[in-house]
Design goal:
The complex is a heterodimer.
Chain A: H1 2-37, E1 49-54, H2 64-73, E2 89-96, E3 102-108, H3 116-120, E4 126-128, E5 134-136, H4 146-150, E6 157-158, E7 177-178, H5 184-187, H6 194-198, E8 204-208, H7 215-222, E9 238-241
Chain B: H1 2-37, H2 52-67, H3 69-75, H4 80-83, H5 86-107, H6 114-119, H7 126-149, H8 157-180, H9 193-219, H10 226-256, H11 261-270, H12 273-295, H13 304-329, E1 338-342, H14 356-379, H15 388-393
Classes of the chains: A alpha+beta, B mainly alpha.
Chain lengths: 243, 399
């Protein structure tokens, strides 16, 4: 009798241990996989990525930056109504109402230090990285478009239709809001944003605003630059020269 | 005789519930279609990002908090006439809030992520505050109604009513501030919007209450005491006039600021449908006509208060359309003093044609509120019952 009890206990203990292993082991394996894939370091707050656009060089009619952005970020879907299409960067032609002076410049997310989109986002999907890049977490964006109401630059787009042509490194999807990421996937690899690289006039200068030795910081010290809607005191990361 | 009445009444109840259910089902179907196809099937776009569903939803939410005012006048300010109306006021509040929230939620790009909205909270977002304010309103009003309708809980009605009153003021402040905190937009960005939304809620909520009360009284073959009707219609008139005052101040301050003149010219004169809806819809139909019907005795007829209430609601929709859609149609001024053109329609007035699905979704919100109210008044005692003796003693029906 006692012998059979011992056998039963032993069997149950072994079965419990086996079941436990089956339940827990895949999780442990996943942690291991996730850990293996973790980036070595996150964004640093010592850096503030920014851009200087020289509008005196930017050519009217040229949209090489727009084409490069669309290609890099997989914004290639066909849209029946252009007002419903996504535009992460666009060329704006300006005419001074009084003097008639003309300007042409690229406009995109200005990567504000105090971004209104981040303030109003109910879920925190809109966020600013430590290095100043403003992004949308597509996992928690609910598609309320409040950030689009809040953005002073009309820099954000809402994805109105199902997408199938995404670029592998750039998450995009139906029902979420998106905007220029400063090509964060390239910047994290030490590359330049696609628009900067593509500009045939060399009108776009990308770099670290916090580093006094960077080209962009030196240039900003030399030339007059403008923050668009400076009255809002958003401390933007994208500056313009020549307007 | 009584049996015939009961049968007719029962048929009417099932008919109305079926109608409300059908409108709700069509609204849900439209939401499913939008969810499946994307907002590409709507008239909304990257410039007019909030459209007709938001007009319906904001009307329902603002009117929901305003309709509770009827209960507050009874419980907080001790007016006997309004005390018997408090339960119905609470029911309408919950029903319209549910309808409005359903429309807002179903219009989301990712309506399936409702749980994300509930579990991720950004304390700097006015929307984020509303995620707490709206469900809180359901809870507080439910408790308040319990204190009103359960005899043993009656002693707690006053503090519960006070809590609901404060909460509803916070809630409408939150709704107005959704727009008031938008620093970059010419149409919004004004602290005036929070109190303006509160006063709009008073007028719209009371107008809805008057209509529902009238329908319920007709349904039960009861006539509202003329003195009570007179008190309520006068109050509605005061609220409508107060909305006029706030809207006038809002536009006059804008007209005074040189930077806002172009926007005001658009909304009040050049903007096509928007000036038409502002002057014709909101001012004439939604303000002047109701005030005339409410205050000029020679214009009054049987049912004139009901017509005035209906016109106030029509005016409310016109006002919200101008405010929400018109405010976005006018181009964002990114480079003041310069004219702008781009592939993204910078510097261009946008046109918006609402598509059928978004209209049906908005209507579905009204369907939800209607169905909840119809079932509520049938299964519980919500019919305002006036004790004329008590009212006379309180001096409430002598004017």
């Amino acid at each position: 009798m006692s012998q059979s009890n011992n056998n039963r206990r032993g069997f149950m203990a072994a079965a419990a241990a086996g079941a436990g292993f089956v339940v827990i082991a895949p999780g442990i394996r996943l942690i291991e996989l996730a850990g293996a894939n973790a980036p070595s370091k996150g964004a640093s707050d010592k850096v503030r990525w920014g851009m200087l656009v020289d509008t005196t060089k930017c050519a009217p009619g040229c949209d090489a930056c727009v084409g490069a952005c669309n290609k890099e970020n997989g914004i290639v879907e066909q849209v029946a109504d252009p007002r419903q299409g996504a535009q992460w960067i666009r060329k704006i032609d300006l005419v001074d109402a009084k003097t008639g002076k003309q300007h042409s410049l690229p406009m995109m997310c200005q990567h504000c230090a105090h971004p209104p989109c981040v303030d109003v986002c109910p879920t925190g999907a809109s966020f600013k990285r430590a290095d100043g890049i403003v992004l949308v977490d597509r996992h928690i964006c609910i598609g309320c478009r409040y950030c689009m109401m809040a953005c002073p630059y009309k820099a954000r787009s809402f994805v109105h239709q199902p997408l199938t042509t995404q670029a592998p490194e750039v998450p995009r999807g139906l029902g979420c809001v998106e905007a220029c990421t400063l090509c964060v996937h390239r910047v994290d690899k030490g590359q330049q944003p696609a628009c900067t690289e593509a500009c045939p006039q060399g009108a776009m200068l990308f770099g670290d605003l916090n580093d006094p030795a960077s080209d962009i910081s030196k240039r900003l010290k030399e030339v007059a630059s403008t923050q668009v809607r400076a009255d809002l005191k958003l401390d933007v990361g994208v500056r313009y020269h020549g307007i | 005789m009584k049996n015939t009445f009961s049968r007719v009444e029962e048929t009417l109840f099932y008919g109305l519930t079926a109608l409300g259910g059908l409108v709700t089902a069509i609204g849900l179907g439209a939401a499913l279609y939008m969810e499946h196809s994307g907002h590409v099937v709507t008239g909304m776009n990257n410039q007019i990002v909030w459209g007709l569903p938001h007009v319906f939803a904001i009307f329902l939410i603002v009117a929901a908090s305003g309709v509770l005012n009827v209960a507050s006048i009874g419980s907080v300010f001790g007016k006997v006439v309004y005390k018997s109306r408090a339960p119905l006021s609470g029911l309408l509040c919950i029903a319209m809030l549910a309808g409005g929230l359903a429309v807002i939620m179903l219009d989301l790009g990712r309506a399936d992520r409702l749980i994300v909205a509930m579990t991720h909270f950004n304390p700097t977002s006015v929307f984020g505050w509303n995620v707490i304010l709206y469900p809180g309103m359901f809870g507080i009003v439910a408790v308040y109604m319990w204190t009103l309708m359960e005899r043993r809980m009656n002693p707690y009605a006053k503090p519960a009513g006070f809590a609901a009153f404060v909460w509803r003021l916070l809630l409408t402040t939150g709704t107005g501030s959704i727009f008031g905190f938008l620093v970059a937009r010419q149409a919004y960005n004004s602290a005036l919007l929070a109190p303006m939304f509160i006063i709009m809620s008073f007028a719209w909520g009371l107008a809805v209450f008057m209509l529902v009360q009238r329908a319920m009284f007709s349904w039960n073959g009861i006539e509202l005491h003329p003195a009570i009707r007179s008190r309520m219609k006068n109050l509605l008139g005061i609220f409508v006039a107060a909305v006029f005052y706030f809207v006038a101040v809002y536009h006059l301050t804008n007209l005074y600021f040189a930077k806002q003149v172009a926007f005001e010219r658009f909304i009040l004169a050049d903007g096509g449908i928007f000036p038409a809806l502002f002057w014709g819809g909101w001012l004439v139909v939604g303000t002047i006509l109701p005030l005339a019907l409410l205050y000029i005795p020679s214009l009054q007829f049987r049912g004139s208060v009901m017509v005035a209430s209906l016109l106030v609601i029509v005016g409310a929709f016109c006002q919200l359309y101008v405010f929400i859609i018109g405010g976005q149609a006018f181009p964002l001024e990114i480079f003041p003093g310069m004219s702008a053109t781009s592939s993204f329609f910078d510097g261009k007035v946008d046109t918006y044609s609402p598509a059928l699905p978004e209209f049906l979704l908005g209507l579905g919100g009204i369907g939800i509120a209607f169905t909840m109210t119809t079932i509520g008044v049938r299964v519980l005692r919500f019919l305002p019952q006036d004790d004329l003796g008590k009212l006379e003693a309180a001096g409430n029906i002598t004017d």
